[in-house]
Inverse folding.
DNA sequence: CGCACCTTTGAAGGCCGTCAATCAAAGTGG
DNA sequence: CCACTTTGATTGACGGCCTTCAAAGGTGCG
């Protein structure tokens, strides 16, 4: 399954990880030795569109996105697919797997761009988690956050129009990236194709295109060549809430 | 907030709880004394339509549904509401709150029927949970199950038609009730009004009505006077998957 | 019996989907 | 460096699923 990947020696020590405090496996502030650096198997690269985890299969690895984007999704028998969430640099790809031995993945994961992923055996991640109550609490917080994102998506899909859903998604990703210093002045790298936007917000690619167009004509966003710019955060937020 | 409720002395000992093994607070099989029985404050009754928890407010109590139905929902500023899930007898109303002190409720909860609820202080429930690794694991499993239900709902709302969504919901509740011995021969008490069905599956009450009608005309269900009967589980399941 | 609350039904319209064609951008090989 | 291909964005026409508005019909309860 992973034969199309390339694993390289870790280019950096974990203690010098550029993701800094935005990643779960950051070293403790105190004198604890850098355990993860010893355990991890290297950093693995994948091309865009590669399957990183398959729905139903047992999870044995803990994967942290070091660079690039991925998405979690479920696929129906006839091919329809629903994207549950996007993962951006620093995100743990399946945080809840750390709580259950022999956990069966409840969704699949695909790379959206070229990605590099920091992989360590799930057992080691579980052991690391259990070593410190704070780290365990961080895992629980991650899971609670995932649940909060799912609830928002449910409300979006159930109660909001196309304009509202797309606006919500753009804002959510903007805020997540901003909290990791990955956006500036409302501008950020947004490598999501309209087909995947459609699968995320429960619309067709054609209608996502028209919806983006409406947002552009309202002068709320500029979006071209994977570069998203939010021109009016307040008004975009208002539309995201009202529509 | 709870001034419209009536609290009565526990009518039964926890060790004789009719919910038996279908409730998280069941006594351990081994010789451990019945701790919950000491801590709980009694069983509280609420009329239909009462608010049991308010989105955003800090959770201080652990509530288990002893009888009746409730639903978890989020409400938007303009009044639109999306139901996230239903709670049936035996369900813990907000399992994830046991993991976070001073947890702010991410959704509101309302009684759907007249309900009786077994309430104990959240701190006691947390202490009880931490006492035994198995019980803590049960809590984690509950939360994982809630997450799985949310994922299915996301797929329903994003990718399925009205017929598929309604079928999915009926089947989900049927299976949940069956696992608690609360349904027999495809027949069960279903006290959900069409307005709430609509809020659960992201449709309007009018269209839910028409959709139920289509299911009846296909001879897949009978539904009258809060009594739901599934006439053809296989075919209903097929439609739930395909539509 | 009368009122409140649902459910059911009809008609009209809009949001979004489907199908299809065109266009733009980014490779690819010569 | 330029045909050629591939992939994704864009646009138009049309249709359908679902919404909205309104009214009528049931059901339970005081």
């Amino acid at each position: 399954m992973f034969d199309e990947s390339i694993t390289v020696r870790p280019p950096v020590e974990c203690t010098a990880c550029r993701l800094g405090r935005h990643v779960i496996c950051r070293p403790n502030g105190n004198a604890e030795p850098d355990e993860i650096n010893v355990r991890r198997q290297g950093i693995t690269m994948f091309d865009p569109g590669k399957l990183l985890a398959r729905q139903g299969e047992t999870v044995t690895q803990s994967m942290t996105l070091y660079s690039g984007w991925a998405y979690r999704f479920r696929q129906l028998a006839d091919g329809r697919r629903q994207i549950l969430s996007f993962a951006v640099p620093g995100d743990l790809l399946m945080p809840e797997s750390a709580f259950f031995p022999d956990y069966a993945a409840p969704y699949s994961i695909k790379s959206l761009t070229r990605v590099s992923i920091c992989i360590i055996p799930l057992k080691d991640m579980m052991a690391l988690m259990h070593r410190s109550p704070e780290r365990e609490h961080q895992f629980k917080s991650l899971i609670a956050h995932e649940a909060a994102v799912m609830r928002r998506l449910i409300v979006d899909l159930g109660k909001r129009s196309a304009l509202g859903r797309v606006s919500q998604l753009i804002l959510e990703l903007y805020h997540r990236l901003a909290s990791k210093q990955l956006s500036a002045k409302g501008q950020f790298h947004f490598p999501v194709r309209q087909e995947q936007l459609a699968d995320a917000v429960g619309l067709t690619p054609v209608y996502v295109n028209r919806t983006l167009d409406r947002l552009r004509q309202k002068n709320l966003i500029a979006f071209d060549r994977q570069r998203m710019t939010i021109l009016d955060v307040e008004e975009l937020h208002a539309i995201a809430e009202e529509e």
